[in-house]
Write a structure and sequence with these properties.
It contains 5 helices and 8 strands, in the order E-H-H-E-E-E-H-E-H-E-E-E-H. By secondary structure, the chain is α+β, with helices and mostly antiparallel strands. Bound molecules: coenzyme A (COA). The site of coenzyme A has 18 residues, from helix 1, strand 4, helix 3 and helix 4.
Length: about 160
């Protein structure tokens, strides 16, 4: 498996991977909206034998309406026939390191706690728009980054126009 930054020419393959992973187009439409809004901060693809098999994207988060140095991770996608081969794990590890290197202080996501706890994500004390409890999680990239931080954590506007 080879993980690298997504390039402009990957766009069609990315939408195919995301649609295939979720068995619907909503998340692919979200990625397209994030791109249109210029809200993609980090984006990686995983390749196997020169074919795109996985994808992850991170976009800016606000807290209480204010810009932050936190990112929202979504969606994370692996083609069904390539799932459970460590590709999702590789993409997440790559993204975490890249976000740290770029100086971001925390990552947020909405997902299955059983999967994301392996990367260190824990239930977030911040509010979210999805009435999510255990599944709204964060990972501090700098110890204490979210200590004392409160309010509504929101993904980029594309999430509110998408039906995910
Ligand atoms: C979730 C997803 C990204 C994981 O990627 P992957 O490459 O299949 O996963 P990995 O190979 O890195 O890890 C496999 C492990 O994760 C577990 N796992 C996969 N999906 C899981 C889920 N939804 N809940 C809990 N555990 C999960 C597998 O059981 C396996 O466990 P093991 O290591 O104990 O054997 C991928 O399955 C996928 O694209 N799913 C559909 C889209 C989706 O739900 N995306 C995440 C929400 S944004």
């Amino acid at each position: 498996m080879f993980i690298r930054h997504a390039r402009e020419e990957d766009q069609d393959d990315v939408l195919t991977v995301v649609g295939a992973a979720f068995h619907r187009q909503d998340e692919a439409v979200l990625v397209a909206h994030l791109r249109d809004n210029d809200d993609i901060v980090l984006e990686f693809v995983a390749e196997m034998a020169e074919s795109t098999v996985g994808h992850v994207v991170a976009s800016p988060m606000t807290v209480a309406g204010n810009a932050t140095d936190y990112l929202g991770v979504a969606p994370l996608s692996v083609k069904p026939e390539w799932q459970s081969h460590g590709i999702g794990t590789g993409l997440m590890q790559f993204l975490i390191e890249a976000a740290k290197d770029a100086g971001y202080k925390a990552l947020f996501l909405l997902g299955e706690p059983e999967y994301y706890k392996r990367f260190g994500f824990t239930r977030s004390h911040l509010d979210n728009e999805y009435n999510a409890t255990d599944s709204f999680m964060h990972l501090e990239l700098e110890t204490g980054a979210l200590t004392g931080v409160s309010g509504l954590a929101q993904y980029a506007p594309a999430f509110r126009s998408a039906s995910v």
